[in-house]
Design brief:
Structural class: mainly alpha
Low-confidence stretches: none
Largest sheet: none
Strand content: under 5%
Number of helices: 3
Length: 84
């Protein structure tokens, strides 16, 4: 199952943006790691609403974009661990 196939084209820009924000949050001292996906989820929803307008579809797209960015992060992390 490819999560990216469910993200609409207009919301695809959110995935790399949220990924970069996640990397910045990860480097923030005193911010627990478990909080980062929730922050990215909220930012994804806000970003999707700004891009697509206020609707249930926007909320869903924001959640999917945040999920995709966390998925990309984990895929990169797993690939690096496998190489080591």
């Amino acid at each position: 199952m490819d999560i990216m196939s469910y993200v609409v084209e207009q919301a695809l820009v959110l995935v790399p943006v949220l990924y970069l924000i996640g990397m910045l949050l990860k480097a923030t001292p005193n911010l627990p790691n478990w909080l980062i996906p929730y922050i990215l989820g909220a930012l994804g929803i806000i970003g999707a609403i700004l891009l697509l307008g206020v609707s249930v579809q926007s909320v869903i797209q924001g959640i999917l974009a945040a999920g995709a960015s966390v998925y990309v992060n984990q895929a990169i992390k797993q690939a690096k661990e496998k190489e080591a």
